[in-house]
Amino acid sequence: EPLADFTGNGCSALGRDDRLCATLAALGINEPFPIQSASLPDALAGRDVLGRGRTGSGKTLAFGLAVLSRLVASGRRREQGRPRAMVLAPSRELAQPSDAVIHPLAHILGLRTCTVYGGVGQGPQVAALRSGVDVVIACPGRLEDLIEQGHCDLDDVEGCGLDEADHMAELGFLPGVKRLLDMTREDTQYLLFSATLDRDVASLVDRYLHDPVTHSVDPDTSPVESMTHHVLKVDNEDRLPVLVDLASAPGRTIVFTR
C-alpha cells in the first residue's frame, strides 16, 4: 500500500519509530511526495528500488528514510572507518543538500552522518570517518581517494542510495561508482534514483540491483512549470562581464560550466 502520510499508518510503515515521525513533523513534513509514497513501502520491505523522478521530487527523503530505518532495524554498532550506509551524489552541491535532509533524521535516531567530497581539505572528513559514522554521503572521486589511503572500508555497507545516477553518468563517474559498489556486501540494499533511466543507468541496474521494483512519478520528458528561457548572443570579449552581471542578480544563481 502506498504511504498516505508520515503519521499514523505512515509511522507504522517507518518501523513504528515515533522519533522519525516527530522529527518529520518538526521539519514541516507531514505528507510524502509521490516518489516517496510510491517507493518507500518496497524500500522499507528491503527490496531494491529503481526510482525515476526529477530534481526536487523528494528522492533524497525517499532513500534516506529507507536507509535509516534499515540501520535502526539491524542494530549493528558503527565501527571506525566502516560506514554502515553509503549515499553517492555527483557533486558537492548535491551531497550537501542530501546531508541536510538526512542528518536531522539520523541525529534523532542516534546515528552519525558525514559528507565526503573534493575541493576542500580531507582532514575533517578523515577525522569524521575515524570517529565512526553510520552514513557517508559522498562524491565518488574523493571517497575512492580516502579508501585507497586506508581511511574508509565499505565491507559493512548495508544500504546504498544512488542519487542523480543519470547526472553521474553524464559526468563520467560511472567507472568509479561501479568500483565503489563492488566493495559493498552481497546483501547490500540498493536504492537508485534518477531523472532518466538511459543505457548508462541501466548498466548499473543490471549489474547491482536484485529484482528491483521500479517506481516512476515523472515521464521521461517531464515539463518544468514556471520557467522562462532567455538566450543572449554576445561578443567574446563581452561574455564574462555579462556573466558577472547575470550572477549578481538578487537571489541564488546556478552556473553550469564545462
Summary, kept brief:
This protein has 258 residues and is of the alpha/beta class. It has helices at residues 9-13, 18-26, 34-44, 59-74, 92-108, 123-131, 140-148, 165-170, 174-182, 199-208, 239-247, and strands spanning 49-52, 85-88, 113-116, 135-138, 159-162, 189-194, 213-216. Strands 3-4-2-5-6-1-7 form a 7-stranded parallel sheet, sandwiched between helices.
How are the SSEs placed, and which strands pair?
Elements: H1 9-13, H2 18-26, H3 34-44, E1 49-52, H4 59-74, E2 85-88, H5 92-108, E3 113-116, H6 123-131, E4 135-138, H7 140-148, E5 159-162, H8 165-170, H9 174-182, E6 189-194, H10 199-208, E7 213-216, H11 239-247
Parallel strand pairs: 1-6, 1-7, 2-4, 2-5, 3-4, 5-6
Helix pairs in contact: 3-4, 4-5, 7-9
What features would you highlight for this structure?
258 residues, alpha/beta, seven-stranded parallel β-sheet, 11 helices
